[in-house]
Design brief:
The chain is mostly helical. It contains 12 helices and no strands. It is elongated, with a radius of gyration of 18 Å.
Length: about 210
């Protein structure tokens, strides 16, 4: 493994920590479904509204999707998300006694759950090393020059080859924070970046004026 890449990843994790206040598997699963194509603040609002009355998997499974609309509307795409959340809850009860399975192959069979969502649940709720790759991780890892991939799924496997498993879980949340604060999509703040001397993009001289 490339020690420079490992050191850079450790710096990102240290400088841009991501704290998680709730590790309940069901809450994390549903919140991550809500986060799809949604800003963090909108996801948080939708999740808080959905769970504020103490709803659990059994309560949600009994609802019609329409009953979730007002609660999760801030997250966007609320009709499809409501349908997926209710259906996922029903599957959890029918097949897993209401529990979220700590298995990626079982998780990705749930409605609305892809590899990113599954990996986030595995790491946050079960402490299982898992590489969750969203648009932030995919974009930044390629910008830094760690990998050269075209899709998040290919980035997932490429990053697993170059990073030790102890960093797989933490790097996602920290990359998200790093991407929002410094390594922005169009106007990265390269002059303020603590890892610019390890960044292929910065060293290439393409820093925005």
């Amino acid at each position: 493994m490339n020690q420079t890449i490992i050191n850079t990843a450790e710096t990102i994790i240290k400088e841009f920590p991501k704290t998680r206040t709730n590790t309940d598997p069901y809450v994390v699963l549903i919140t991550t479904i809500l986060s799809q194509r949604s800003k963090d603040e909108n996801t948080e609002k939708a999740s808080n509204q959905l769970f504020q009355d103490g709803w659990d998997v059994y309560e949600v499974a009994k609802k019609d999707p329409e009953e979730l609309y007002d609660k999760i509307k801030p997250s966007g795409m609320y009709r499809q998300k409501a349908k997926n959340i209710v259906e996922t809850s029903k599957v959890l009860i029918k097949e897993y006694q209401g529990k979220v399975p700590p298995d990626i192959e079982k998780l990705i069979q749930l409605p609305g759950v892809g590899r990113k969502t599954a990996n986030i649940v595995l790491w946050i709720s079960f402490g299982i090393p898992a590489m969750a790759v969203d648009t932030h991780v995919h974009r930044i890892a390629n910008r830094l020059g760690w990998i050269n991939t075209k899709t998040p799924e290919k980035s997932e496997y490429a990053l697993m080859e170059i990073l030790p498993s102890r960093l797989w879980g933490p790097i996602n949340g920290s990359m998200v924070e790093f991407g929002k604060a410094i390594c922005k999509p169009r106007t990265p703040l390269c002059s303020l970046c603590p890892i610019n001397q390890s960044c292929q993009y910065y060293l290439s001289g393409e820093e925005p004026k």
